[in-house]
């Protein structure tokens, strides 16, 4: 065991849902740490209405300064986009030309390999050289030569051709996606250098999904909802039902996960889903789940901020917010491999801070199953309620490629087993009674308060892992097939026989960038024919 840890000299940890944090562990020394924060502006309902009905004004001008809420936004989220777009981009043409160059260079090697594309290859090469020449001594739009427009247009056409799959589509598409797998430093470099990755990033939270959320919210206030929930209130607290929990801001993802669970369960009427979301998404979620039904399953949407405001234990404003599952990209440098294969990447998903409120959020319940919103369920899961977990608190899939000892630069305590494996969120079985008895939440909170120098979100990894040390019941591998958000090499057979699929990684199934071969397993359970989806261009 010890050997294996020594082999990996450096681990780079990246919090992928924001891509704002970079941590490097080199032989136990912690490295750079960048962080940017944006303030979320309060959108009042009235102005949101205008933003939707008006000409898609993107909401930024309706922002008000009062009640500012810190919002560490996802790399590429709508909000980040709107904040950045308040400023006009300088030297936009130069940036655009650089984007083109970047794209063309990225595609060139795969095009050059194709048969019968010699002419196109030559053409592409020529365009690349011309762009390079033009940009070699130009940093500002004002310095561009007069013929830039012609070059820009030509290159545009060439790139269109590449993208339209006229030439060897799958190769090219794959190359483009690999760009997302750049290390954080590279990505940062490129976002500064050009607008390309920045725009690519914006696509990671498609505007269409934001539109959906807005439409649903407006509709919620316009129409009287059926209030189906009131009728089911008793069920929500009755331990005799199978209770599932999810923390989510993404209505479409949550809906798809829930639908897959209901469709594949032997008795959907015995299922209760508890969806916890934030103020910004609450009304959209509520309206959606009132409109849609999932066989006989019951869905209960809660605004976690409302709950936390009432709770005495949650004092700071920051803590009241929704902190859903966090994902970290871990890059290993395995120096015992040949140079080309030294880098290995895994995505580790861990509980966010909101998960630690579970015993309090569901006071009448004991066993619950927590699902992440990037999961698809393919089998009946009710046997998870019969699983004998002994005295363990949480059932989870373990990953022994990374061990706790390798994260020691981020952990204050010394009192832990350096050899213990990390585990994944995604599908977790939880014993809330034991959790309460052991006081895990308050231990976790204390450890959070001790050290505030590290970012709150970044802490989720070591803290979450430490909190459940020795309390993990390892779930069999057949319960979860993970990696569908980044690993191209998963076989159809493995996917089809798995009880659940986890799209951990950056290529979430609801994005354009999703891995093509894995999309259908998700789409199968996506609602179609919902009016708002058509209006928002979601197909
Ligand atoms: C936004 O501002 C309005 C008043 O301007 C206030 O009533 C409302 O509670 C605020 N909403 C949030 C989510 O802070
Ligand atoms: C690193 O490479 C060695 C040699 O190929 C291999 O035995 C080991 O399992 C690798 N470690 C990890 C964590 O992949
Ligand atoms: C659930 O999935 C089925 C297909 O498996 C689909 O026909 C149905 O529209 C989906 N329902 C919802 C509410 O998403």
UniProtKB/TrEMBL annotation:
List all membrane-crossing ranges. Answer: none
Q: What domain of life does the native source organism fall in?
A: Eukaryota
Q: How does it sit in the membrane?
A: Single-pass type II membrane protein
GO terms under cellular component: Golgi membrane
The signal peptide stretch is 1-31
EC main group: transferase
Q: In which pathway does it act?
A: Glycan metabolism; pectin biosynthesis
Sequence similarity: Belongs to the glycosyltransferase 8 family.
Q: What's the protein here called?
A: Hexosyltransferase
